[in-house]
Amino acid sequence: KIKDCKTFGDAIKACFSEHDHEMITNEGIKDGSTATVVLFDNGNLYTANCGDSRAILVRKNGTCCALTQDHKLDLESEREVVLRIARERGQNPEPEIVNRRGTWRTLAGDRRRGLAVSRSFGDREFKNSNHGLTCYPYCTMSSLTEEHVACVLASDGLWDVVTEEEVGEAIVMALEKYPILSPRYLAEELCRMALLRHSQDNITVVVILINHNNSSSF
Q: Which InterPro entries does this chain map to (predicted)?
């Protein structure tokens, strides 16, 4: 039973670690993945993320609250985490972290294109070489109120070209105009918005409506 954020955090960390191990030990899987997870329980919203997929909570007035934290090497704090963990694991020499055309990446083995994230599932070539990459999640708990209308989860294909503020405004405006819109329609509209702005990455969007007709819907 989920009692608080620590209980959720402990459970999700164990789950993430188990899934990461399954991917690393599967020789048929070389690549990796990010993850964002949400759990609604007794008026609370628990969130966990690993990598650069993101979740936000949208209010009635269109403003948003970030529920996740990007794990990207563009952040100096994340670069420091990768280097510190690599040292603790005894990696010598230290991971090669470079800035290519404005994007920080870490390199390993044949993956010379590198990774821009500092945490992920899989990516066995990095983790099997005692690299500083981890699957350690960032966890939060938020209390839901009548002011909250939606929770949006999406991959960086959306967030690279559409701001959180634009997502919040788009959802609120659509619901005010067409109250019976389905979450699927809203998610598809956000995908179209990203495509029209020529997003260069994969686009995955999930919209969860909250307090909409007295229920949560996906």
A: PP2C, PPM-type-like_dom_sf, PPM-type_phosphatase-like_dom
